[in-house]
Amino acid sequence: MIGVMDAPCQLEALSQAPLPKMEQTGFVAINTIHCQPHYQERFECLFCSRVRAIDEMPGFLAMHVLKPGSEGEPYLVVSYWESEERFQAWVGSEAFHAGHARAFADLKAAKDAGQEPPMTSTLRTYSVLAR
User: Fold this and answer.
1) pLDDT computed for residue 14 by the predictor
2) Is 4 part of any domain?
3) Which domain holds residue 83?
4) pTM for this prediction
5) pLDDT at 56 > cutoff 60
6) Do 54 and 17 form a contact (C-beta atoms < 8 A)?
7) How far apart are the first and last CA of the chain?
8) Over 90: is that where the pLDDT of 4 sits?
9) pLDDT at 18 over 60
10) Which of 33, 40, 48, 110 has CB 3.0 to 4.6 Å from 115, enough for a Cys bridge?
11) Greatest pairwise CA separation for the chain in angstroms
């Protein structure tokens, strides 16, 4: 089983992120993340202690991590971008891989141990149709 950090984390700092100016938003990426119950605290800690690499990417406007209100429901990671091209540049960047390295290591450790992945994700992207 993947270990959980000793100190509990809070998502309070993330909840203070301002909404992007809607006139700048042209593209939205929503990552739906299902966590195994034993991994939820670790998942939250990864975001509480993130390296903030995305914040420096050209075209990045904002990100919100939404914690489910009901047990068993997925987390949502919603990022706002000026354009799809800017988002794709993030996904293909070294900063993206560095920013996700700890989660990727957790997935690899579970696989190497013959365990189910501690989390799974589904990415969906959207162009802003109307404001």
Assistant:
1) 45
2) no
3) 24-127
4) 0.80
5) yes
6) no
7) 45
8) no
9) no
10) 110
11) 47
Q: Does a structural domain hold residue 109?
A: yes
CA pair distance 36, 116, nearest whole angstrom: 9
CATH code, 110 = 3.30.70.100
Residue 34 domain flag = yes
Contacts of 82 (CB under 8 A, 6+ apart): 24, 25, 26, 27, 59, 61
Q: Do the domain assignments include residue 123? A: yes
Number of structural domains the chain divides into:
1
Those residues whose C-beta lies under 8 Å from the C-beta of residue 36, and which sit 6 or more positions away, are: 116, 117, 118, 119
DSSP 77-115: EEEEES-HHHHHHHHTSHHHHHHTHHHHHHHHHHHHTTP
pLDDT tops 80 at residue 2:
no
Burial class of residue 127 (count of CB atoms within 10 Å of its CB; 0-12, 13-18, 19+): exposed
